Amino acid sequence: NAGVMQNPRHLVRRRGQEARLRCSPVKGHSHVYWYRQLPEEGLKFMVYLQKENIIDESGMPKERFSAEFPKEGPSILRIQQVVRGDSAAYFCASSQPGASTEAFFGQGTRLTVV
Amino acid sequence: DAKTTQPPSMDCAEGRAANLPCNHSTISGNEYVYWYRQIHSQGPQYIIHGLKNNETNEMASLIITEDRKSSTLILPHATLRDTAVYYCIVRVNYGGSQGNLIFGKGTKLSVKP
Questions:
Q1: Closest-CA residue of chain B to A33
Q2: What is the model's pLDDT at position A41?
Q3: DSSP labels for B28-56?
Q4: What residues in A contact B41, CB-CB < 8 Å?
Q5: CA of B105: which chain A residue's CA is closest?
Q6: What is the rounded (10 degree) CA torsion for B50, B55, B60, B63?
Q7: Residue B73: predicted pLDDT
Q8: Which end of chain A has fewer CB atoms < 10 Å from its terminal CB, N or C?
Q9: Which of B46, B100, B102, B108 to mutate to test the interface with A (most CBs of A within 10 A)?
Q10: Do B43 and A43 touch (CB under 8 A)?
Q11: Is the peptide bond before A8 cis (omega within 30 degrees of 0)?
Q12: Is residue B53 predicted with pLDDT exceeding 70?
């Protein structure tokens, strides 16, 4: 009964490189959410996806950030041309459809930009 | 922005009940109240959720006032491992389907021996 799996757990990138963060939801879950947490701060919502659709991306920076959740495979959060300010913990959560279903979180990916 | 207000911190003695309050005066009729906690820098852990009735599970109890403008999470016998930041969240509702969870600053609960 695997939970939400995120990989890698730790990722180091140089400024200007690309970062790809992967999230495999709980089996049977068709909804995925991405959050960012800066050091000593709370979780900030980034994007909410269903399979092949973006439902709410109101928290996504307008440039360099993109997310997808294809029909097959994990959800991907992609950050292009990373800067030091992108250093943070990125958490993914998944849930089943329905008006009252809990969302379960992964253990996060810690991105460090050097 | 989060639709909830929580005290920034609370202390609780080990073995005693921890009662964490939350105000959500602008909650809509079909929005649920969810509670999560985050221990150190781990991923948030789901605790409990409810609409208008009180709820209980193996981790905690959730008491929602009749007007739904506030709620209380109760950890009946707090242990040192319950030390965490506790988040009360009103879940966005997309016309009957669930939406994203907007986290506020939460309450930092410190359980002391």
A1: B100
A2: 85
A3: -TTPPEEEEEE-TTSPPEEEEEESSS-EE
A4: 37, 89, 108
A5: A42
A6: 80
A7: 98
A8: N
A9: B100
A10: no
A11: yes
A12: yes
- In which residue ranges of chain A is pLDDT below 70? 1-2, 99
Q: In chain A, which residue's Cα lies nearest the Cα of B50?
A: A100
Nearest-by-Cβ selection for A100 from B38, B45, B51: B51
Query: Do B30 and A108 lie within an 8 Å CB cutoff?
Result: no
Residue with tokens 């852990």: B45
Could you tell me what percent of chain A has a pLDDT over 70? 97
**Backbone φ, ψ for residue A84 (5° rounding):** -60, -35
Q: Do A26 and A4 touch, CB atoms closer than 8 A?
A: yes
Give the C-alpha separation, B56 to A45, whole Å. Answer: 27
- Among B38, B93, B98, the residue with its CB nearest the CB of A101 is B98
DSSP chain B: --S-B--SEEEEETTS-EEEEEE-TT--TTPPEEEEEE-TTSPPEEEEEESSS-EE-SS-EEEE-TTSSEEEEEETT--GGG-EEEEEEEPPEETTEE--------EEEEEE-
**B103 lies within 8 A of chain A by CB:** yes
Q: How far apart are CA A49 and CA A75, in angstroms?
A: 9
Structure tokens at A81: 């041309």
Amino acid at residue number B78: A
